[in-house]
Amino acid sequence: MAERYAKVAVSDVSYWIDRPYDYLVPSPMAELAAPGMRVYVPFSRGNRKAEGVILSVSGHSDFSAPKSVIALLDSAPILTKEQLQLALWMRERFFCTVYDAVKAMLPAGLWFQSNGARRVKDKYTQWVRLTLPPEDALDLAERKGQRAKTQASVLRLLSAVGEGALTDIRALTGAGKASIDALVKLNAVEYFYQESFRRPDFRHGQERELPVLTEEQQRVFSALRDMLGAGKGSVALLQGVTGSGKTSVYIRLIARALQLGGGALLLVPEIALTPQMLETFSSYFGDSIAVLHSSLSVAERYDEWKRIRQGKCRLVIGTRSAVFAPIEKLSLIIIDEEQEITYKSESTPRYHARDVAKYRCAQANALLVLGSATPDVRTRYEAELGRCAFLELKTRYNRRALPEVQIVDMKRELRNGNGTSISALLREELSKNIAAGEQSILFLNRRGTAKLISCTDCGFTFRCPNCSMNLTWHSGNRRLMCHACGWFQKVTAQCPSCGGALRYSGDGTEKVEAQLAELFPETEVLRVDTDTVLAAGGHDALFRRFRENNIPIMVGTQMVTKGLNFERVTLVGVLLADQSLYAGDYRASERTFSLLTQVIGRGGRAERPGRAVIQTFTPENQVIRFAARQDYDSFYHAEIELRRLQRCPPFLQLISLTVTGIDEYQVLRCCGDAKKLLLHGLNGKPGTDVLGPAPYPVVKVLNRFRYKLTLRCVPDREIRELIGKMLIHCNTDKAFRGVSVFADIDPAE
Questions:
Q1: Tens of pLDDT along 40-73?
Q2: Computed over its alpha carbons, how large is the radius of gyration of the chain?
Q3: Is 612 left (phi over 0), alpha (psi -120 to 50) or beta?
C-alpha cells in the first residue's frame, strides 16, 4: 500500500509556531485516518506526546522523513470538512491557533485527561425486549398465572410496548431482577444496552399552536420566509420595539425552517434568558430542542452535543458558544438582542458570535436574522448601506402603549435632603404599585452595599493587593471584595492607617435592598445579582419566585434588563442611569441607550399600562432623553455622526493589542517596540494610525499590568498579517521574557 501522510494541527503550540505539521500515517491506521479525527503525535525535539487534529490526508509530504502518528483517538471524524474550514478561518481572523478554534467548537467532555481516559464516558442504559412474538408471550403469561405473577406482568407489558428500560419495567410491574433473569433463561426476553443522554432539566411549556401574527408581524415574517427559501446565504436585521412580538416571528420562522428539512439555531445573550426561552419554545417544538450554555454540567453539554450531531434535535437554543453547534443541514441562525457585548468572547479565541454566524450562514447558504430593539450601530449602518436586509416592527403587540417615562434630577433630590437611592417620585410610584398589587423592577448596575469606604481624616481607602481597584463592601457577608479577582477581607471598625472614622459611599443593589426594607417594611423585596444567583442555584429559580409568588419589588443588576416577560410588572425604576455614560469607551452612549431602552421595555407588556422612572445626575443628556422616548432613530443618527468624526466603527476597524506582564517597565518597553514595528510596517498607509500605549481602566489585575495599543484601520488582510508578525516578534523576543501580547479585533473594552 502507498504511504499516507497527514497534515496535523497540534495542540499546546503557541500562535507563532502554529502551522500544519506533516506526519506519516502507519499502515495499520492508513485506511482509517481521515480529516477531522484526533491523533497522538510526537512533537518538538523531545518527541513529547501531543494531541492533534488531522486537517488533510494525502499520498505525499514535503519532508523527507516525517515522524509517525502514534495513535488515532477517534474511531470516526468528530469535525466535518466545514468545521475544519471554520477553524482555519478563525485562526486567520482572530489570531488564535487552529487547535484553540477546535477546542471552542467541541464540548469539554470529548477531551482526554492526563491518564489517557476521556473526560466523560458515553452513558448506556440496560433495556429489556421480547424475543417471542407478542401472542406467544401472552400465552406464556397465562400459563405463569398465579405461580409467577411478576413474570406474567412483565410479559404482558412487553407484549404491549415491545421493549423498555429495565428500571422502568421493574417500576411498572414490581418485578425484581431475579424474575426478569428467569424470563431470560426461558428465552422469552433478552437484555440489551441502549445509549442514553444526560439531559438538563428545564420547564416544558404546555403544547400550543403556532402563534397568530399581527398584520405587521406577518409582513416581516413573509419577507424572512422568502429569504429562507431562497437557498443562499443572507443576513437580515429585524428591529422591533420592546414588546413588539419578535419572538412570535422567530417561532414561525423556525417552524418554517424545520418544515423545509433544515436545522435552526437561536442564540440569546444571557444564561438568565435560556430557561424562559426553553419554556416558550418547548410549547411549540416539544422535546426536539437541544440547549447549550456554560451552566450545564460537562456530561450534559457533551450529551446535548451528541444529540445535535446525531440529528436527534434540529433546534438548538443557547448562549455565545452554541454558535458552533454541529447542526445537520443548518438553514437558519437567529441572534436575539444582537447588540449585546456578551456575544464577544474575552478569552482565546476572541471571536464574536455574530461574525462566526455570518461565516457559517455563507458556508451553508443559510439565513442569519439579527434581532433587537436597539441594534448595534454597526449593524444598522450596514443595513442602511444595503449590505443586509432591514425589517422593522414599529408597534407593540396588540398596539399596547410604550411605558410613560419620567426623568428625575438626583441633584435636586440631594438639595432637598434626600441622600438615598430612591427619589421621592419613585417612592410614590412604588407605593401606588404595592397598593394596586402590581410588580416593580428596579435596575442598578452595581452589586454590593458601598462602592467605596474611605477615612474621613486621612483619605485612606481599602484597595485590592492584587489589582489596582478599590474593594466593594458587601454587608451580607460583611466582607470587602474585589470584583476583578475575587480577593476579600474583613472590614475594620476604624481606619487602619490613622484610626479615624470610616465613610461609606456609593450605593449597590445590597444597599438599595436595605433602603427599600426601611421604606416598605411590610413588602417583600427580591434581589437579583451575582451574589444571590449563586446562593439560589440559578437565575430561573429567582425569576420563578418573582413571577409565581407575585413579589412586589425586584431590584437587580444587568440580569433584569432584557428578554424577561412578567405580565404584572407595570413600573420600572432606573437608579443612577448615567453610571455607564462616562466609561471612556466610544460605545458608552450606545450601551447606555440600549440598557435604558431594554429595561424600560420590561414594563407594561400585558394589559396594564407601564411607566418608568429614570434617576440621573445629568437629566439634560440627550442619550438619556432619547432612551426615555424610546427614540432609536434619533439616537442612531446622532451617534453615527459622532462615530464619523471620531473615525470609529463602522467607518474604521479597531484592533486592540494588549501587553501584560508583572514588570510594568517591561510592559511599557514592549508597547514601544510593538508600536515602532507597526508604524514601520504600515509605512504611512492612508486611513491608518496607532494610538497609545494606554493603560486599561483597571491597569493591574492579579498582579499583572495591562496596557494596550489601538490600531485604527480599514479591514485588510495585509494588516492582519502585519499584526501576526508583530505578535510573533514580541512573544519570542528574549528582551520581553515574561510579557504576553495578544490581539483582539473590535475588543469588548
A1: 999 988 899 999 999 999 988 888 889 999 999 9
A2: 30
A3: beta
